[in-house]
């Protein structure tokens, strides 16, 4: 194996040197602190407290000041790597890593993160990493000047990713605030001629939709699909496909669903098992409740209205316990839920407005994914 990266700054040449971690960093575990001394929120005079799974909260004392890499020593995220800078407290479940000599701690963060340290953990019930085992690991290291150049470049990429994530979070928060005002009618839209839309009216769900309970075996026209949390109707992946567990599915009946249907699972409303069918014709499990939206209402508006936490809260009031700890909201009860809605014309205005914000969120999210893919490629080519 050649100890030379595929992608390199032109001023550097020669092979990287293989060394043990103990020769380039010093490692030691943090210190014990009682759980009662850790606060959930940051207050004046407190410091971030890091454990094996990252940030645990905030404490009134610190045991480190400066730039370090923290490695999760125990816990669900054993081997997790975090770069911290400033005054902080590290518990005994975190390994505090400091660069020796002129080695660059930021570059070492990227290198340690690439090493997938979790694979070196021991123990079943409570996986853990020992400082002695970590010290014995080896890898390839360039001279400090090349470390610094790589670290500065990757840090600039990370900064771009962080800014894009902040932009996405800000757009999502902006949309959430607008939706609160729109559905409380604090914000009202105008007709094209500048006049007011009619007042919103209180109606039962039965005025907006009707139950669809067509059951038949899966077919070419209605292929068997999954209904995934926060995604809706989608092709079954390996994780969701359980057909191999059933010896004879021939003739088994599923519920048919069409494009624009509203679907929910009574059991998992709070975890995203509610939404619209944006896929098209499909067969899904009969455990789902399916409704056809009437044509005099806007599909996009209804998808927003029916997935809001405030509406889900109304639904939960009708949830009843059935066998084996399962829950059910009967379709007849759902259709009796009352909700204020605007006219179709205002529905379309609201839907268009919110869709424009969604488009910006999706574009920013795609940019984040592109930058993360770009960074992943850099890490593969700029390291040995």
Q: Kindly report the spatial arrangement of strands forming the biggest sheet.
A: 2-7-5-6-3-4
Going by helix content, strand content and strand pairing, the class is: alpha+beta
Separation of the first and last Cα atoms: 9 Å
Q: What's the story with the biggest beta sheet?
A: 6 strands, mixed
Low-confidence sequence ranges: 238-248
Number of strands: 21
Helix segment tally: 8
Share of residues in helices: 25-40%
Beta fraction of the residues? 15-25%
Mean pLDDT: 92
Q: What's the Cα radius of gyration?
A: 28 Å
Order of helices and strands: EHEEEEEEHHEHEEEEEEEEEEHHEEHEH
What is the 3D form? elongated
Structure notes:
By secondary structure, the protein is of the alpha+beta class. Helices cover 31% and strands 24% of the residues. It is built from eight helices and 21 strands. The protein has helices spanning 21-24, 105-114, 131-136, 144-183, 299-306, 309-316, 331-334, 344-382; strands at residues 17-20, 25-29, 47-51, 54-59, 64-72, 81-90, 94-99, 138-141, 201-204, 209-211, 215-217, 226-228, 232-234, 253-257, 262-264, 274-276, 282-284, 289-293, 320-321, 327-328, 338-341. The strands form seven sheets. A six-stranded mixed beta sheet has the order 2-7-5-6-3-4. A four-stranded antiparallel beta sheet has the order 10-18-15-16, with helices on one face. A three-stranded antiparallel beta sheet has the order 11-14-17, with no helix packed on it. Mean pLDDT is 92; it is low at 238-248.
